[in-house]
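Bumping my old thread because nobody answered last time. Still need a sequence for this structure:
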């Protein structure tokens, strides 16, 4: 870097300059040491050759964006050193307009840096999971105070929840069981599942199915995570189904009872005959006689021409 030779040479941080064709134009001593080479061996070679094959496309995209937009771009990648080994580094590059070159500052990732990067990646993944979950996820500290939530139920805000004891949202009759479950998870390190009734500041009550698990730091519990799902509509639907089924059973029982009452028990022929006689105001004896005989035989004709009634039939004017 002709304009800043002293800064370029004295900097502890590795610097690499890349020309418009992507070749290494200059490196300072820390950069040469990082790549386990010398300036004479590196200058003139394509910078992409120093990048791990799996990272080249991503680095090329960043370089193009920095060159075209003249903005600073930072990326993590792996650079090839002597002996075909690779080192994890963070590249920060931007375009130097007076030289028309890309200046790349290189920082090697130490074990601590790598751990920090893994931690940040884990946090980003966890945040993405939390944001896309249908369930509500709470975390608490070791005292049971809420210190994290992915979303809040309707009627609440994040400010209403963070810093509030977890038991504050449990119905009065649920607070002691909730406290017992919390202590059990903290002491045993095991997850528990349960259903509970939550109460809101406006007095609403809703059913939740929940799982409570420990947050461990080694062998010590430092808090709990609560994953809960609103099942109020499911419970209402189940109750409506039970009510409808009970109504149907009651209706079927009433219908069966009404049918049995209207049909009554089977009656004997004599009982039936007595009923008919009562309706026609006839004597039961005559009706019984009529009910026992068969159809009348043709009447015999006397010498005088009058019909003689069949044997066994009364000659009264009333017939059965």
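Sorry it took so long. Here it is:
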């Amino acid at each position: 870097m002709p304009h800043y030779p002293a800064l370029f040479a004295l900097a502890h941080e590795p610097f690499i300059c890349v020309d418009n064709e992507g070749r290494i134009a200059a490196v300072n001593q820390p950069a040469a040491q990082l790549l386990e080479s010398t300036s004479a061996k590196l200058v003139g070679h394509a910078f992409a050759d120093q990048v791990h094959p799996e990272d080249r496309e991503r680095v090329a995209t960043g370089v193009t964006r920095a060159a075209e937009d003249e903005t600073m771009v930072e990326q993590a990648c792996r650079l090839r050193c002597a002996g075909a080994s690779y080192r994890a580094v963070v590249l920060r590059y931007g375009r130097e307009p007076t030289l028309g070159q890309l200046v790349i500052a290189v920082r090697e990732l130490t074990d601590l840096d790598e751990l920090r990067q893994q931690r940040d990646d884990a946090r980003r993944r966890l945040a993405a999971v939390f944001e896309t979950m249908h369930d509500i996820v709470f975390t608490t500290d070791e005292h049971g105070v809420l210190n994290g939530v992915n979303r809040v139920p309707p009627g609440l805000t994040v400010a209403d929840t963070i810093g509030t004891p977890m038991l504050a949202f449990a119905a009065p009759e649920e607070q002691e069981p909730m406290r017992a479950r919390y202590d059990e998870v903290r002491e045993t390190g095991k997850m528990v599942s349960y259903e509970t009734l939550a109460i809101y500041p406006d007095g609403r009550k809703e059913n939740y199915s929940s799982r409570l698990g420990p947050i461990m730091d080694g062998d010590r519990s430092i808090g709990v995570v609560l994953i809960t799902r609103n099942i109020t509509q499911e419970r209402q639907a189940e109750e409506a189904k039970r009510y409808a089924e009970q109504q149907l059973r009651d209706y079927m029982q009433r219908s069966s009872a009404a049918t049995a009452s209207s049909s009554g028990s089977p009656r004997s022929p004599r009982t039936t005959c007595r009923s008919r006689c009562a309706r026609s105001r006839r004597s039961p004896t005559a009706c019984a006689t009529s009910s026992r005989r068969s159809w009348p035989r043709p009447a015999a004709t006397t010498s005088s021409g009058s019909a003689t009634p069949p044997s066994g039939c009364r000659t009264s004017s009333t017939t059965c």
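The two ends are 137 Å apart (CA to CA). Let me know if any region looks off to you.
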